[in-house]
Amino acid sequence: MIRKLVPVILAVLGTGSGVAAGLMLRPAAVADMPTPETITAEMPSEGAQDTTKDTGNTEFVKLNNQFVVPVVTRDRVSAMVVMSLSIEIAQGNSEIVYTREPKLRDGFLQVLFDHANLGGFEGEFTNANNMDVLRMSLRDVATLVLGDAARGVLITEIARQDV
C-alpha cells in the first residue's frame, strides 16, 4: 500500500512546487508594464531633484573585462552569453573595486553560472523579472565583497550567441 502511495505523493509535491515556481517567475503582465509616456511623466523635470534616491554621492565603476557564460543543455554547450557589468558604489571608493576585482569576478561568475544552470539564459532571458533576479544576486555578491560601499550592479551589455 505504501509503495503505491509514495509515487503519488511525489507527483503531487513535484507538480505543486512546479506551479509555485512558475507563478513566482512568470513575466509581468503587459498591462502592468510602464509605457514610455508614464516613464517620461514620472521622471523629474530638469532642475527638479529626485528625493527618492541619493545618487549625488555615487559613482559607477565599469569592470574591465566582459563575462562569458556558457549555457549547457544536455551536457553540451548550446549558447554563450557575454555581458559587461558596472558597479554602483559610494563616491570615492573606486579603488576598492579594482583592488578586490579578482574576488568580485569570481563571485559574479559563480552567480552567472548558477543563473545559467537554472535556465536563466533560456527563452526570454532579458525580461524584467529575470534581469531583476540576476541583478539582486550580483548586488548581494558585491555587498559581500565590498561591504557598504556597494550600492548596486548594472548590466550594461548582454548578448547571447547560440552555438
Describe the structure.
This protein is of the alpha+beta class and 163 residues long. Helix content is 45%, strand content 25%. Strands 1, 2, 3 and 4 form a four-stranded antiparallel sheet that branches. α4 (101-117) packs antiparallel against α5. Residues 45-53 have low confidence and may be disordered.
Structure summarized in a few sentences:
The chain is an alpha+beta fold and 163 residues long.
Features:
single chain, alpha+beta, elongated, 5 helices, 163 residues, four-stranded antiparallel sheet
Strand content: 15-25%
Percent range for helical residues? 40-55%
What oligomerization state is this entry in? single chain
What is the SS-derived class?
alpha+beta
Cα shape: elongated
Low-confidence stretches: 45-53
- Report the mean per-residue pLDDT as an integer: 81
In sequence order, what are the helices and strands, one letter per element? HHEEEHHHE
Mind telling me the C-alpha Rg?
A: 20 Å
Question: Major β-sheet, in short?
Answer: 4 strands, antiparallel
Q: How many β-strand stretches?
A: 4
The number of helical elements comes to 5
First-last Cα distance = 49 Å
